[in-house]
Specification:
Elements: H1 2-24, H2 29-37, H3 56-59, H4 62-70, H5 72-77, H6 81-89, H7 103-117, H8 127-131, H9 137-148, H10 185-188, H11 191-200, H12 207-211, H13 218-231, H14 241-282
Helix pairs in contact: 2-7, 4-7, 9-13, 11-13
């Protein structure tokens, strides 16, 4: 009887884990596409960062596509020719793995893409056309303010400056180093159309949890794209000033700290030494 009482909570824990796992893997295909796919792909709207997925199951074997969706990094690591071709067409960009993805989910996602491919009025066919808007100096200035945190995002999301930098970023420290340098993001991520779509639902294990809850507004996306468009010319000319400034500031700060520390402790240090000096000579 005692053994049954001890094992009962373990059964409850087991069923809780099963329920939680089922919930985490129970997203509808449309939700998965909106969260992880539409930032790089359209369905009938043309190429963004990745290829247009309209009728993709007619262009490539379904079993291959399932394997690719489940483990894109592994397929690329195996030097699969078709995967390498896709990577080259995407300017070297690597498809981000989708958390919790499995073969069943990948199959359901392909079914969803097939259904949208057959729909002439699919909402995913117009992403590219809607992204092409004029970019002005005022837009770029607003983008700079958003990138650096001088202006907050409406949703309360963190500034890009916290994790990223660009080559032509004014300032002493030059931005964060946790994420990649975004000087070439405009070119690398499909220019205006691709980058706008990418920012609408940033993929990846780091950005998706943040910006799925705190999405960027359309005007904010356009401003950031305008700013990064201005940065594209500096992508091939990395600026070492930010690193140099950081080193200089570190040296100056260390020197000031030592000077202040010396002033604070000089009284105690000399007070002890003077007494010892007098005692030794008076003896």
């Amino acid at each position: 009887m005692r053994t049954q009482q001890q094992s009962f909570p373990l059964y409850i824990l087991f069923f809780m884990v099963v329920i939680l796992c089922s919930a985490s893997f129970g997203q509808a295909p449309a939700e998965i596409f909106n969260q992880y796919c539409k930032s790089c792909h359209t369905i009938g709207g043309g190429k963004l960062i990745g290829p247009d997925l309209k009728d993709v199951t007619q262009r490539q074997d379904r079993a291959w596509l399932v394997k690719w969706i489940v483990d894109p990094v592994g397929v690329l690591g195996a030097k699969d020719p078709y995967a390498l071709k896709l990577q080259k067409a995407a300017n070297g960009a690597i498809m981000s793995p989708t958390p919790g993805m499995n073969e069943s989910m990948a199959g359901a996602l392909l079914d969803f893409i097939e259904k949208e491919s057959a729909d002439p009025s699919s909402q995913y066919a117009g992403n590219k056309a809607r992204a092409l808007l004029p970019m002005t100096r005022e837009d770029a200035a607003t983008g700079y303010a958003l990138f650096t945190g001088l202006r907050s995002f409406k949703s309360g999301g963190p500034a890009c400056f916290a994790c990223h930098t660009v080559n032509k970023l004014p300032g002493l420290l030059g931005g964060g180093r946790l994420g990649p340098n975004l000087s070439d993001a405009y070119t690398r991520l499909g220019q205006q159309a691709g980058l706008s779509a990418w920012l609408s639902a940033p993929p990846g294990l780091t950005m998706t949890p943040i910006f799925s809850r705190q999405p960027l507004g359309k005007d904010e996306i356009h401003a950031l794209v305008s700013f990064l468009n201005d940065q594209a010319a500096s992508a091939a000319n990395p600026n070492a000033m930010a690193v140099g400034n950081f080193v200089i500031i570190s040296l100056i700060s260390s020197t000031l700290f030592l000077l202040v520390f010396g002033l604070v402790w000089s009284g105690r240090f000399t007070g002890v030494r003077k007494k010892l000096f007098k005692q030794s000579y008076s003896a």
